[in-house]
Amino acid sequence: MARTKFLSRLVSELDFRGTVDVLRRGIEDQGVKLTLAFSKPASGLNETILKFYGQNRPDGHPPGALLRCSRWELDLGLFVNGIPVATVELKSPVNGQDVSHAINQYRKDRDEPSNAMLNRRAVVHFAVDQAWCP
Question: CA–CA separation, 81 vs 86, rounded Å?
Fold first, then answer.
């Protein structure tokens, strides 16, 4: 019950204020201020802040393990402390696809209104292929 209420509060704050603001300023729930991520300190003088920064947990979900539905499947999602910050659409010339296919997929196949992570919460979306340009 408490977990469900907290997640509901977090989702409403992400939708209202945006991911960057929530990560920077945290949220308040039941009168308690919760810090959801810690920025890297300008110097190493404050060991407490440095320790908290070191406890941030970046995470990535590998291809095929994230956000499946009947119309599409996301290749990779990147998170900070469980909050989505980026999505990645991966393409390979082995499959006859390149970055233009990834861009087109974001533009045309990722329009599901129910998918808040792609539509509102992730801060950036990457289209990636294996080509390298010097």
Answer: 13
Q: 38 near 56, Cβ under 8 Å?
A: yes
**What three-state secondary structure class fits 69?**
coil
CA angle 13, 1, 68 (to 5 degrees): 65
Q: What is the 3-state secondary structure (H, E, C) of 44-66?
A: CCCHHHHHHHHCCCEEEECCCCE
Give this prediction's pTM.
Answer: 0.79
Q: Which helix (H) or strand (E) holds 56?
A: none
Q: What is the pLDDT of residue 106?
A: 81
Tokens describing residue 96: 């006859």
User: What pLDDT, in 10s, does the model give residues 88-127?
Assistant: 888 988 888 999 998 888 887 766 555 666 666 889 989 9
Whether the Cβ atoms of residue 128 and residue 86 lie closer than 8 Å to each other: no
**What does the block give as tokens for 98?**
């390149």
